[in-house]
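The material for today's practical consists of a large collection of protein records. A record pairs a protein's sequence with a compact description of its fold. Instead of coordinates, the fold is spelled out as a row of discrete tokens. We will come back to this pairing of sequence and fold again and again. Here is such a record, shown just as it appears in the course material.
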Amino acid sequence: MSSNVRGQRFVLGLYAALVTVAGVAGFLTGTFVSGLSPPRFLFLIPFPATPLGFAAYGALTIALVLGVPLVLVVFVSARIDDDAARGQ
């Protein structure tokens, strides 16, 4: 197995782990902290002020915040590899 594939698996595994941790942290926050106001994903979509609502909010927020730059890095690196293969 090439180191490139192992590196991609590591990054995806780390991404999934961070999203999971954010979901668990949101669930624990919703469970043990009282008097919370409902979160709004992207300032538009309201979530209920329940443990599951906070878990979904935390996981989706981290997935978006980390996922968008990750997709951009993958896109740019593929473009650089293509340009290098063509000799440009």
Remarks:
- The chain has two helices and two strands.
- The chain has a mean pLDDT of 90.
